[in-house]
Amino acid sequence: MFLRQFARRNVLAASVAGIALCAASPAYAQSAPAAADEADDPSGEEAIVVTGSRIERAGFDQPTPTTVVGGAEIQQSAQVNLQQALNELPQMRNSVSPNQSIGNTSAGTAPVELRGLESARTLTLVNGRRFVGDNNLNFVPTNLVERVELVTGGASAAWGSGAVAGVVNIILNEDLEGLSVGAQSSISSRGDGWRYAIDGSFGTHFAGGAGHFMIGAEYLKDEGIGIEGRRSRPWFGAGVVDIGGGQFEIQPDVNDLAPISFGGTVLSGAFAGQVFNPDGTLRPAQPSDFFSIYDTLIVASPLERLGSYARLSYDIGEATFWVDAAYGRSDVNQPFFPDPASPVLVFSVAANNPFLSSQIQQQLAAAGEPSFLVGRFSRDTFLFQFDAVRETKEIAFGVDGSFGDGWRYDAHFSHGEVDSRQRFANSSIPANFLNAINAVEVGGQIVCSVNADADPANDDPACVPFNPFGEDAASPEAIEYVRGTQMQDEVTKLDSAAVRLQGDPFSLWAGPVSIAVGAEARWEEQSQEIGELDAAGVFGTPLFNDPLEGGFNVKEAFFETLVPLLDSEEVDLDLNGAARYSDYSLSGGIWSWKIGGTARLFRDVLLRATRSRDIRAPSIGNLFSVSSINIAPVVDNDSEGRDSNPGYDPNPNATIFSGGNPDLVPEVAKTWTAGATFSPSFLRGFNLSVDYYDISIGNAIATPNTADITAACAAGDQDACDRVIRDGTGTITTVFAFAQNIARFQTSGFDIEASYQMPMSRIADVPGTLRLRALATYVDKLVFETGANVRDTAGDVGDPVANGLPKWRANFSAAYQTDSITVDARIRYVGGGQFNDELNIVNGDIGARTYVDLGAEFRVMDRFTFFGRVRNVFDVNPPLITTTYNAHYDVVGRFFTVGARVNF
Question: How many angstroms separate the CA atoms of 839 and 234, rounded?
Fold first, then answer.
């Protein structure tokens, strides 16, 4: 919403067991990573990857592009959570990270976002099932992840709402055997950012192999990087400055809050331009007294998280009955920035305030000044402290089985809850602050003026006079009186049920026709409670204004088929189609569908294409967030014919109602994908894929501003006109700016993936395996159209551009692995672009950055594993950009990780 020492710690880290850093296994666009000994065996049957489809069949080449990331690659990244490991993929936009959530209530969450289309349009699954938690991957234990499958095209027909940009399906290892324990420790080359993680897992079979039980958990503690970390990193606090003539410049240190200071600056009268020392004396201001709000922010958010998962399964005949449970917790407790509420940022004090020295009072009296203004950014009193605890609990049970001639079925039910507790300590209460600084002296004691009044109705017995003249000048009692804690408690619930049946009912000339048919249902609800002070509206910067409560349910049925059209030595041709009908309790029924096909030519080339209609239903927040009321200036873009009225005002202050809208309907997206993969038989182990995507979203949900609404009205949109109330002169008095299905988004580009693995014995008498992999994404356009505003943010990489993306992102990894050692290297490329193409910035061309990571792993007696990793080996600096929370470039610098693992 808003903005140890290295050696000592590494001795500790090396003395415990840690997460093993495995080799970078290649992951192909259509198949899971092959084992090393399979790279030389083209007859080996591929693992089945089905995330883009509900049909499971060995050798099925699905038409929807899919990228697979192995669990080894995830461990190799040595990141704070699964989300940050996935965010290094070129198809992802790093919308939330520890460096971006420093002044934002997103701290403690970890969503993923494909294509830059916002996280609500990426559907996340665990083992093919929806999970409660709103895409928060902090709850997923990375040590149990077997692989992650990313469908990089629309998949609503297969999986339902939210799969507009694609699907991220997290596959956990459900067949664990034995005990594994580990830990790792990380720290930056600047001695900050320390974190450690410990994990364990256990699995065993029983009842002669019919039963299986497993459990695993991961705990991580990340200290984050405080304000002091800014001094050793470049460009923190950079900003855009107007240099005149319609031009702007990015400058490395912009103190845009000047002349306001931490101790207080006199803004009017005889002492204007002077600042208060901690002892209350005045002196002329110095440049070092001034700062930017960014100077008050930490570099990276701290995080404490726990993820755990357990599963019990039992085979009875051809059926496997199972139950699993998950528990997760994330805790963030971090400073934000001083409360910027205007009544406590700039305020007036009386010239006879008893906290002023007698000398200053006399000089003010001589100047005939009864009062003066003070500008003070009160980090000693009003430094926001954000504490958020999020807990998830989920249980599911189901059955998987088969019958007859190849028919398979599965069914499950799950219930999950997320309990969230958010607190904003040190929030200003302006009414109390104004009472407290209005102090007088009575009988030799300084008291609040309201308590010196003879009228007891004006009394506030709790008021304690506050000294605002100099940092740390106020008493603890006064500080407690002028501030409070904002609070919000929230419960989110998800119940989900599904059943699926798959089989081959008949055969055609080219082979069996496969079908999958099923039904699903979901019930979602959310409720919030806020504190008494929040409800009373006493805070200067209110965060939790009105509680939200609401829910909806949806019932769905889907059908998918795979029809082989041609099966020959030279050409295989398959047609794949799917359809889903979703009936929402609020908006009614809607269809999503997909049609696609594949053609394999000479066993070496696979051509594929899909066309789909995908949906995203409105969230509970979109539907039910409570209306808020604001009075603010508006821009009237529907002024034609009104200018002749002398009373008409084109920019009046108007009452604006905003909030959720229960009449919202699902967004609808049209998606095209087309591509090819090349797996030449003459170069075993090599795979290359190139895919084009085009996603166009209509009816997208957005909250329009008044300029958008009046522009739409001027263009003939009667619904927009109905949301604007005018008086007799034609001047706007009220605007209803509720969430609407008014936006359009569009993006297109290319994904490229290449991988190669081979035994070294092919070229020399050397043991081990070489693995190479490259991923790249080119974004041609990323257009957001919200009412009157249309913008293409592809190629915009500055912080102010909310949805910007570099045109190019790419990763290249290489690993050499033997039975006892693995060494690997990775190159991460982030393209440059314009800081902000809507401004004429003289130095706005931002250059690309290339980062190199190195790692090594040693295995001893097949039981012990020790590893080390260095990210950003060459400590590449970010570009000159407001990198306080940049989504694209590394702002932390060189980072070390060491650890070990032991298996029993």
Answer: 23
Which H helix or E strand runs over 306?
strand 303-316
What the chain holds in terms of domains, given with CATH numbers, is 6-225+301-334+388-424+489-625+660-703+739-903 (2.40.170.20)
Q: What is the DSSP letter of 619?
A: P
Q: Which residue has the tokens 């077997």?
A: 146
Report which secondary-structure segment, H or E, holds 53. none
Cβ atoms of 502 and 409 within 8 Å: the answer is: yes
Q: How far apart are CA 830 and CA 809, in angstroms?
A: 5
Cα→Cα distances 315→56, 207, 209, 318, Å: 20, 10, 9, 7
| Single-letter code of the amino acid located at 615 | I
Percent of the chain with pLDDT over 70: 93
The SS3 assignment for 17 reads coil
Pairing between β-strand 122-126 and β-strand 166-172 as defined by DSSP bridges: parallel
- Please state, as a whole number, how many other Cβ atoms lie within 10 Å of the Cβ of residue 540: 20
What six digits make up the tokens of 281? 């004396």
Joined together, the tokens standing for residue 123 give: 């559907």
pLDDT in tens, 811-840: 999 999 999 999 999 999 999 999 999 889
113 burial type by CB count under 10 A (0-12 exposed, 13-18 middle, 19+ buried): buried
In the structure encoding, which two tokens stand for residue 481, read together?
């009186």
Question: What CA–CA distance (Å, rounded) separates 738 from 706?
Answer: 11
Write out the two tokens for 678.
């090349």
Q: What is the largest CA-CA distance in the chain?
A: 105
Per-residue b or e along 780-816, where b marks 16 or more CB atoms closer than 10 Å to that residue's CB: eebbbbbbbeebbbbbbbbbebebbbbbbbbbbbbbb
Q: What is the pLDDT of residues 347-401, one digit of tens each?
A: 999 999 999 999 999 999 999 999 999 999 999 999 999 999 999 999 999 999 9
Q: How far is CA 88 from CA 16, 112, 154, in A?
A: 28, 11, 21
> Helices in 758-873 by DSSP H: which ranges?
none
Query: H/E element holding 630?
Result: strand 628-633
Cis preceding-peptide flag for 42 (omega within 30 of 0)? no
pLDDT of residue 788: 67
Tokens of 859: 């295995």
